């Protein structure tokens, strides 16, 4: 399993219609085959300047690679993410073996 996470800050004012539209349109990512447990999160810690997070899981590296190449993901990144995200941190995790 791979858990793909990204913490980010938008260029839009907090609570603006543009912020809402970005988050609404980002839900397209949840519809891409292989995406499991898609979540949109509001960052609450004062320890960093990020505002939101996305988290999703994939069964394996092949599912994650297919998501990365999917036209809906590519379009969202090019049309929305690149022009509207001010800063971000992406982290991908794999579980450690139990024991």
TrEMBL record:
InterPro entries: Dabb, Dimeric_a/b-barrel
PROSITE patterns linked: S_R_A_B_BARREL
Domain Stress-response A/B barrel, chain residue ranges per copy: 2-93
Protein name: Stress responsive A/B barrel domain protein
């Amino acid at each position: 399993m791979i858990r793909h996470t990204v913490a980010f800050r938008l260029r839009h004012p907090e609570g603006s219609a543009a912020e809402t539209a970005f988050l609404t349109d980002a839900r397209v990512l949840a519809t891409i085959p292989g995406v499991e447990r898609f979540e949109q999160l509001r960052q609450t810690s004062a320890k960093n300047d990020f505002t939101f997070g996305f988290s999703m899981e994939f069964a394996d590296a092949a599912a994650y690679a297919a998501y990365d190449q999917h036209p809906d993901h590519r379009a969202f990144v090019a049309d929305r993410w690149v022009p509207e995200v001010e800063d971000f941190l992406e982290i991908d995790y794999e579980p450690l073996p139990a024991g």
